[in-house]
Structure formats: C-alpha cells, structure tokens
Amino acid sequence: MAVMPMKRMTLIAMRRDRKQLLQFLQRQGTTEIDTDVPDDGIYKKIDVSSQKQIFLKNIKQAEDALEILAKIAPEKKSLLSSFEGREVISLEDFEKNLDRRNDIMAVISKINALYKENLELIAQVPKDEMDREALVPWEGFDLPLDFSGTEKTKAFIGTLPGDVSAEDIYLTLGMLFKESDKVDVEIISRSQQYTAVMFVTGNDNAEELKDVLHRMNFTKAPANAVTDSDGTSLTPAKAIERIDAETARKTARRKQIISEITDLADSRHDIELIRDYFQMRKDKYDVIGSINQSSHVVIITGYVAAEDVPKLEAALNERFELACDFSDPPEDADVPVKLKNNAFAAPVEGVIASYSLPGKGEVDPSMAVSLFYYFFFGLMLSDAAYGIIIALACGLILKKFKNMEPGTRKTFQMFFFCGVATTIVGFIFGSFFGDVVSSVAQTFGHMPKAAADKLLPPIWFNPLSDPIKMLTFCFAVGLIHLFTGLGILMYQDIKNGHVLDAIYDGLFWYMFVGGCVLLLLCLPMITGMLGLSFTLGSTVKTVSIWITLIGFVGVVLFSGRESRNWGKRLAKGLYGAYGITGYLSDVLSYSRLLALGLATSVISSVFNTMAGMVGGALPIAIGVVLYAVIFIIGHILNMAINALGAYVHTNRLQYVEFFGKFYNGGGRPFEAFDQKTKYIRIKEDI
After folding, report:
1. Distance, CA of 4 to chain centre
2. Contacts of 395 (CB under 8 A, 6+ apart)
3. Which of 240, 318, 381, 407 has its CA 20 to 30 A from that of 118?
4. What is the DSSP secondary-structure string of 621-661?
5. Averaged pLDDT for residues 126-152
C-alpha cells in the first residue's frame, strides 16, 4: 500500500514548441499541470478564448452529427458494449486520420444540414394538413376562395355556424336585410359544425350586406394561398391537388434525406475521432491560456509521480529543446495524491477515494481495506453459489473486455474478489443456494431430512443452527478490524516521527480496550452468553486488570495533553476514557455481519421450501418445472437484494468504524493532464 511520492516539475521551453510539448504531455497523462499560476509581470498569460470557441463549436457539431446517426442509423451493439472502453489507436494512425479532418468536417456539416432540412420539412406537415383540411369543405367550389366578385357585383365567401339550409338563410336575410331579394345564396357544402356558402349582391348593397352577415356570425373563407405558376389563384380542388403533390414531394425528400444520412453512417468512427481531436485541442488550449509565457519562452509547472520522472525526463530531452527540473515539493505545498497498489488491493482504491484520499502524513489504507472488504462482503452474502456467479460473471467480463476503462475495471475486479470471498465463506458455512441440495434430495429423492442435510455439510458450522457462535465470531472479527485501525494509527505516528503520540493514542487504547476484553473473558457469565467453551483463569484476570488500569491511566493523562492546565487536561482525559463506550457500539455494529448473512441464508431456504412444497405436490415433470421457476426467480431476487446490502454495509464498516480510528483523509486527487476523450485513446510509447 503506497501513496506515490511526487516530484515538483518545472519546464522552461521555447514558445514555438509549446503546442507539441503540451500534446506530448497530454498523450502521456503522467503530469498534473498548474493552471492557477499568477502573472509575474514578465511572463504573462495569453487570451485563447477565440480559439476555444472554435473548438467548442466543432465539438458541438460533431456531437450533433453523432446524435443524428444514433437516431437514424443506430449502431448495433451488445448489452455489454458499454464495458468496451475507448478504442486504443497508435499516434501514427491518429495523425493519418487527421489528414482527412477537412473531409470529415464536411461530412459532419452535411449530416447536420440534411437533418436540419428534415426537421424543417417535418415542421411544415401540420401547416399543410391544416391548409388541406380548411379547403376540403370547398372542394366542389369552382372559383378561387379569394374571388371577390365582378365589376358590378360583390361576393362574400365563407361559413355560417351549424347546419343551415338555403331557405333558413333567405328567411334570416329577409328579417335583417330589406334588399334580401337582391342577394344570391349558393351553398357549397354542409356539416353539423358549419355551412359553406357564397353570397353575391350588387355593389350598391355590398356594405349593408356585409354588416348583416357579421350579425349572422359569418366567417370569411380562408385565403387561398395556393397559386398556379403564373400567380393565378387556384380553385379549392386544384389547391388540394397542389398541396397533396407538395406533401408527396416532401415525404419523398424526407425519405431521401434519411437514406443519405444512413449512407453516411460509415463515417461514424471518423466523426468520433474528430470529436475527440477537438476535445483534446480544447483541453490543450485551456492549459495554454493558464500558463505563463513570454514572446519566446513558456514556463510549465506541475507535479509528476517520482517513478515516472526518469522516462518522462529522457523523452522530453530527446524531443524538445528545453530545461527541465524535477525536485521534492516544499513542506507546505499542496501536493496531489496518487495511489499505487498491487492487483489485490488496487480495486478498492475507488472505495477509499469515495470517502477521501489520504491526507498529508497518512498512509494508503488500501491493503488493509481490501482484506477486510472482501471478507466482510463474503460474510454478509455468505452463499457459495452466489459467490461463484458473481466471480464468474466479473471474471468473464474482465477477460472479454481488455480495453475497459481503468475505473470500471477496478470495480469489476473488486466484485470478482468479493465473489471469491463469498464462495469460500459459503462453503465454510455450508450454504449453496441456501439448502438447495437438501431441498432437492428431499423433494425429488424422498430422502429423510437428516440424511439430505449431510450431502453438503458446512466445513465449519451452519450459522442458522448456531447463531450465537456466529455472533461471537463477528464480534471477534470486529475487534480485529478496530485494532488493525489502531495499529495503522501507531504506524503513521511512528513513520512521521511522533513516537510518543503512537504510545498515547495507540498503545494505551490497546491496553485499555484489550484489557477490558480479556477481563470479560474471565467471567463465566460472559463466556456462557457468547457460547464459548472456555473461561480464562484468575492469573489472566489479574494481568488483564493491571493492563486495563495502565491503559485507563494513560488515556486519562494524555488524551487532553494539548491543554497546559491540568484541570482541563484531566477533564479531557476522563472524557476521552469515556470513549471506550464508542468501542462497545463499534463492536456491536459488526453484528450486521450476522444479520445480513442470516438474511441471505433464511430467504434462500424459504424460497427452496416454497419450491419444494409446490414441486413435491405435483407429478414430477410439472413439479420439476415449477420448482425451477420458483427457484430461479427467488434466488435472483435474493442475490440482488442481499448483494446490494452487503455492498452498502461493507462500505459503512470501513467508513465509520475502521476509518474512524486512524483516518482523516482530505488529500487532493492527482488530476493528470491527459486525454479526456470519449471514444479514442492514443497510445504512444516512450
């Protein structure tokens, strides 16, 4: 377990090389570059906002094109394709593809333009439908709807509300218009909602008729916007024909657009590459705009892991004209934290980072966390079959997708080890899909329960048969976990040169808590409650009393040692000694190992019993099928629910009980200047 030592990097290079230098550092991904360096009056920052806007625009266009292709020509991928990670390509292949970036951008523009045209055509559909619907009542009318009359007459074309006859219209006109006999009424069409009609009268009566029609709730017909090639308005029938023809043309064009976009789907990979290219350029210009530079020189500062320095320094000197310096950071520097562990401990680094990375002077707890993490998960899930399923699933995914992203890979590795631990614990406690072996033997083999239970006996004991023994074991494991945390605290203090602190905050608590535990084991009542077959003797009792007293006195005298006033110091010391109740509650927290482990076994047994009751009461052919259905559904639910519970409570035991003994965290994660891409990752060996 290790927090990687960091070196402070300072590069002084020619300004003409800055882009190539930053591109190289970005591809390596081993450097954290300072981006908040203040101007010093000589070396200043430059404004790169205009270039960044261009890159952001190109990124947006590429993402829009990819989104369009995903809608119109979706890529066929498996359910597990999300684990594939980014495509790894060589620098040479990447640069070859970049030679075609103008052609790729032209494809992107074409896709976006075609889709925009398609959207515009779609937007016109409702209007065309409304225009056509408005013309349908007038389809039998042989004049354009904007016809207003002749030289001596005035025509009013429109609708009246409801279904009315010509007689009704003349009757109403007779009551409202004294010259009604000089009005000609032509009904075009009728429906329950309205009646389409044309009124014609002489010019002398036009104004008065207009007022009368207004009182009759007359609505003017829609303007006929469909015209012939010479600009002449068309009749409704001709207008409908023209709209239908235009609709058919637009539909055909939309199909053509979809076909053209689909034909461009082969460019998806190129578009992904160009999108990531502009993303890298945007990130590079973020750095260019945040570092100090003059007209000829650029200064780059940051941090590099000490183990990466030799190769990086050699590669930089080989490729560029520059001066580079890698030195130990100052004591008060805000040094980023980067962890390095072996294949067993590395998977839990994400668990630690979710809480907080180690602070200054703290050790990396990954190895200790991994040992207990996998074991606790196994104790809580505690079924060998579930463990085999989890381990096999994770192992196959890890083997199949070798290019998986590092964070995702670590997660699957963590659950692989959790599955292995669950398998081991399951066989130790005799659980394989609960008691499925016994259940099947009793249901279909008609074996006696006593004989069936011996088909897969536990290596140690069955927690369902002896829960007190399991509870005692959980308490013992909890004490080991807590004492390991105290041991790490002592190690940190000794490593940092605080030997007395290790004694005050570690050794005395070991004596205080450990002495109390030994003292309890000397009491027959306690050992009887815990189901232990032994009770420690009087000699151990005497020794444990003295150990407890020495630990208690040490805690009281030195818990408040930061106070110079002895009254306050003793008060703080007594309050600190009261903290032993916290150890009691912490130890009791480990009873969740028993609770979740029993929950998994009990629920498994319940589903097996249900399946056995149904399967055993029916003919064997039907019984086997129903047994299998209940078995599969029940165990899928049980595994999912209890695996989630095991994950949550395992994290809790680490974060609250374990970390509470030694770990403060607060470390700043190492943020490498690397390829924050979405689709590709450039591989360049140095």
Report:
1. 28
2. 416
3. 240
4. HHHHHHHHHHHHHHHHHHHHHHHHHHHHHHHHIIIIIIGGG
5. 88
Question: Minimum mean pLDDT among 155-159, 366-370, 680-684: which range?
Answer: 680-684
Model confidence band, residue 607 (pLDDT cutoffs 50, 70, 90): very high
590, exposed or middle or buried, with CB in 10 Å at 0-12, 13-18, 19+? buried
- Of 293, 42, 332, 686, the C-alpha closest to 301 is 293
**Which residues lie closer than 8 Å to 449 by C-beta, 6 or more apart?**
438, 442
Are the C-beta atoms of residues 234 and 228 closer than 8 Å to each other?
yes
pLDDT(224) > 70: no
| Integer Rg of the chain from CA | 41
Q: Which residue has the tokens 């909890």?
A: 478
The number of C-alpha atoms within 13 Å of 229 and in the hemisphere containing its C-beta is 0
| Closest of 435, 463, 462 to residue 449, by C-alpha | 435
What 3-state class would DSSP assign to 415? Answer: helix
- Its sign, for the CA torsion 270, 273, 277, 279, is positive
Residues in the chain: 686
CB atoms within 10 A of CB 231: 6
- What is the pTM for the complete model shown? 0.86
Euclidean distance between CA atoms 73 and 67, whole angstroms? 10
Query: Checking phi first, is residue 382 left (phi over 0); if not, alpha (psi -120 to 50) or beta?
Result: left
CA 629 vs. chain centroid, Å, equals 33
Phi and psi for 38 in degrees, rounded to 5?
A: -75, 155
The pLDDT tens digits for 530-578 are: 888 889 999 999 999 999 999 999 999 998 888 888 888 888 888 888 8
Is the pLDDT at 14 greater than 80? The verdict is yes
> Which residue, among 360, 369, 364, has the nearest Cα to 667 in the 3D structure?
360
CA 527 to chain centre: 49
Q: What is the 3-state secondary structure (H, E, C) of 347-362?
A: HHHHHHHHHCECCCCC
Task: State mean pLDDT over 198-216.
Answer: 90
